[in-house]
TrEMBL record:
CDD domains: WRN_exo. One of its GO terms (molecular function) is 3'-5' exonuclease activity. PANTHER family: 3'-5' EXONUCLEASE DOMAIN-CONTAINING PROTEIN (PTHR47765), EXONUCLEASE MUT-7 HOMOLOG (PTHR47765:SF2). It holds the Pfam family DNA_pol_A_exo1. GO terms for biological process: nucleobase-containing compound metabolic process. It comes from the Bacteria. Residues 32-203 form the 3'-5' exonuclease domain. InterPro entries: 3'-5'_exonuclease_dom, Exonuclease_MUT-7-like, RNaseH-like_sf, RNaseH_sf. This is 3'-5' exonuclease domain-containing protein.
Amino acid sequence: MQMDTSQHAVAPLSKEQIRALPAFENLASDKIIVIQTLEQCLALQDQLSSIQVFGFDSESKPTFKVGEKSTGPHLIQLATYDSVFLFQVSAEILSFLKPILENEQQLKVGFGLKNDAHIFRGKDIQPTSLIELSKSFASFGYRSQVGVQTAIALLFQRYFAKSKKISTSNWAVKRLSPQQISYAAADAYAALLVFEQLYQQHRFTPQLQQQIMKILEGSTDKA
C-alpha cells in the first residue's frame, strides 16, 4: 500500500475525498479464522503467545432499550499481519483469552478501546498494554479523535467502507454471516496496519513511542 511519510500537517480530508479513494483490501477469507471452541483455542496457543502486537477489537449485540445492559462482548478480534482470529465468546474462550488480554508484553492496538476495556472489566478481565490509535493524528492536522476510516485514508490513501447495518447487527448469533466476518476482521486488521505506520513514522507522542519500543524490545529479548 502507498503511504504518506510526510510529517507536515495536511488539511483534513472530506468525506467525499475519502469515498473517492480506491477500496481498502482486507485479508483473504481463508486467512480469517472463526473460533468457536476451546479446542480450537488450544491449537493456537503457542502461535498466539508468540505475537508481539495484535490488532484488537470486540463486538457486542447492540442494546436498543433505555437502561438495557449489554451482555457483551460476543466477539473478540485479534489480528496479526497474515491472519485474523474471530473468537465467538463463551466462558471457556474468555478464560483462554484472559492471559493474552492481561499480558503487559503483548500490545493490543485499536480504535475506541476505552469502551472495550470497560466491557472486559465487567467480565473480570483487566486488559493491559492497550494502544488507542484515535488520538495520534495531530500531526496530520486533526485536533479531535480520528476513526479507522480516516486513518486508513490518511496513511494508505484507501477507502475503508463502514456499514452501520453490519456494525449494529446481532453479534451474539451462533453462525456469523460472511458480511459480519469480513467487517469484524477488517476492523482489527486495519488497526494493526495503522499502528505499524504510526510507529514507523514516529507519530505517537515521544513517551508512548518509547513505551511501545520498550515492550517490543522486551518481547524480542525473550524470543
